[in-house]
Design goal:
428 residues; alpha+beta; BirA Bifunctional Protein, domain 2; 15 helices; 16 strands
Length: 428
């Protein structure tokens, strides 16, 4: 039988791992700079956690969750997103008693049963960040600055779209208006929108059915129903992000409002945003990061009333558009039949001058084949330490780029010195 990875999953192969690690490392750098602390949460949770947080009107709960019964007949679900699990941990472990705000981030696999598309998988990986315990607009503004810097550092051209859904009062007003507006069209809408009509009309705006979108195009937008509190907050955020300045005068030039923007999760209120790649590779799946404010979520999951704000970005999509650049590491194969070769390899690793990738081939049955392998792997150097070299207490260094050979004494410092000199020649 020929085994294959399940539909909607993929292997991250060595040729792609540099991109993967670059995304993780760059994200960690900026998150730590802005004082986010790393947290790790379980891959599965009690199903009710996602039903209560994500919302029973959402596509995730209705169509996409991987849910199963364990041996004790408890309903568990592979996490479709990270926010609910982080909030559960925040409440359960008493993090809500720590000085506010509590800023947390995590990364790892998520699971949704949906049609595989460009950069979208059933097992996918996200970097997720949450700010709990502050309703200050600095949460929103800081994150937009953080993400803009992060994507610039990764060499990704993007467009930032922002909107406000309003607070509970605003959403109630819009719900009443939108239900009246769409009531006469109910017979023409898709089954999902008929269900959302009662549960969460705002989610109807996120429908992907073309005919439904044509009906909604004539409706007013949620931004037109903001309460005074939400409207003032929205104006302050736009002002801090420089939207009232000339585009060339802004710190962030690739940002704009989008009154049609809504998010697919029920817990959002007020500020929401999406960041989209302008790279044609992603085609219709251009959203690489999204998030927003969720001031009622912690309380709904049994914690004290606590404002929250967060976002997540998909690693697989970013891998499609990230360039790893040039790897400056020197690759070296050590070929030896002497036991102390491992000591030398360890000493070489302690150098602070060069980035090295070492492959040790101890007691190879055929030295010629090892040399051939090093050439095929496009390695930079071979270090020989066989019987003759052991007898003379030297290393032979072969530069595979220039074909030069040199001998040096059996000292890591001397070996590094010669490799540095040879590297300069290779770079010319």
């Amino acid at each position: 039988m020929k085994y294959q990875s399940p539909r909607g999953t993929q292997d991250i192969l060595p040729k792609d791992s540099a991109k993967w690690q670059k995304i993780i490392d760059t994200s960690r750098k900026y998150l730590e700079y802005y004082s986010f602390k790393e947290i790790q949460i379980p891959i599965f949770e009690n199903t009710e956690l996602f039903q209560r947080s994500v919302g029973e009107s959402s596509d995730i709960v209705n169509k996409e969750m991987y849910t199963f019964l364990d041996r004790s007949e408890r309903s568990l679900t592979l996490r479709p997103e990270a926010t609910a699990g982080i909030v559960r941990s925040f409440v359960e472990n008493g993090l809500h008693r720590e000085p506010k705000p509590v800023k947390l981030w995590t990364s790892g696999p998520m699971f949704r049963y949906e049609r595989a598309q460009t950069g979208r998988y059933r097992q996918f990986h996200q970097i997720d960040a949450e700010v709990l315990g502050s309703n200050n607009v600095s949460c929103e503004v800081e994150s937009i600055y953080l993400l803009n810097s992060l994507f610039l550092s990764l060499g990704i051209d993007s467009r930032i779209e922002i909107n406000s859904l309003g607070d509970a009062e605003s959403r109630k007003s819009y719900k009443e208006y939108f239900q009246k507006y769409t009531k006469g069209f109910l017979g023409d809408l898709c089954d999902d929108c008929k269900r959302r009509y009662e549960q969460n009309p705002l989610r109807m705006l996120d429908c992907k059915v073309k005919e439904d979108q044509e009906i909604y195009a004539g409706a007013k937008k949620p931004i037109e129903f903001l309460s005074e509190v939400s409207a003032n907050r929205w104006e302050e955020i736009k002002n801090l992000l420089g939207l009232y300045k000339d585009k060339e005068s802004r710190d962030i030039k690739n940002i704009a409002t989008n009154p049609s923007l809504v998010r697919g999760l029920d817990y959002y209120n007020d500020f929401v945003f999406e960041i989209k790649s302008t790279n044609d590779i992603l085609k219709g799946q251009s959203t690489i990061c999204a998030g927003g404010r969720y001031d009622g979520l912690v309380e709904s999951l049994g914690g004290p009333a606590t404002p929250g704000f967060g976002w997540a970005m998909g690693i697989e999509r970013l891998m499609l558009i990230v360039d790893t650049g040039t790897d400056n590491a020197m690759s070296i194969m050590l070929i030896s039949n002497q036991q102390d070769i491992f000591q030398t390899a360890s000493e070489l690793s302690e150098n602070n001058d060069l980035k090295l990738n070492i492959e040790v081939n101890y007691n190879p049955p055929n030295v010629s084949k090892q040399i051939e392998s090093a050439v095929k792997k496009n390695m930079d150097f071979i270090l020989f330490y066989l019987d003759e070299e052991k007898k003379n207490d030297v290393f032979k260094i072969k530069n595979l780029k220039t074909r030069e050979e040199k001998e040096c004494n059996n000292k890591a410092k001397e070996i590094i010195s010669i490799i540095k000199d040879q590297k300069v020649r290779n770079d010319r």
